[in-house]
Design goal:
Elements lengths: L1 E2 L6 E2 L7 H20 L27 H7 L4 H15 L11 H14 L1 H7 L3 H19 L10 E4 L3 E2 L4 E2 L3 E3 L7 E2 L6 E2 L4 H17 L1
Helix pairs in contact: 1-4, 1-6, 3-4
This protein binds zinc ion (2 copies).
Amino acid sequence: MNTCQMCERPDEIGGLLCVGCTKATVVRLESLPALHRGLSPFLQPAGGVGAGRSGKGGPAPLPVNEDILDLRGPGGLVGAAERWLDDVRRGRGHAAITPAGGIEVRLQAAVAGLLANMGWIALSWPSAGYFAKDIRDLVNSVRSIIAPVPAVAVGQRVGNCPAIVPPAGTLCGAVLRLAPGEKALRCQWCGTVYPPYVWPQLKVWIDEDTKARRVA
Ligand SMILES: [Zn+2]
Ligand SMILES: [Zn+2]
């Protein structure tokens, strides 16, 4: 029987990561694109475009947070995911892939590549523990920036769903409420799920939509 490289508990299957740590790593990998998007509202300096600053002073715009720029840039989340995928592919004797497209597309591709190899990673990759811990640390560092998550009470009306619904590309606009026993907001109309770490971004979208509706 092996010991899990992450939680150090014995693993009945004899892999390098136990079932629980494998699942947790999958969830963390899947959350990376949303976390990446969730960082963007923190990049806008306070009092920027549209805030109607009068020139009478008021609070100075906050400097752009360098940590967030680093995490969103080519060396940040996407760089980490691509480096790990490279290592995995080398470990399996597969040819390296040259990343293409914008950062969001590259992050999606690297995450998909890692998820596709998760079975092998958990069972046979000597670096599985380092990998799983690195992904955990990465997710925690992004969450610590995005936090504090806005407090949402069960049943509270959060705003209107900002999802764009195909095929017409119209705004969903259904009222979002936190259902009892749920951690994420789920739109009852279009089914879009908003986990807590995207709530800051969700608030930005809802505010923009509300403003646009008032103008119209
Ligand atoms: Zn474990
Ligand atoms: Zn919706």
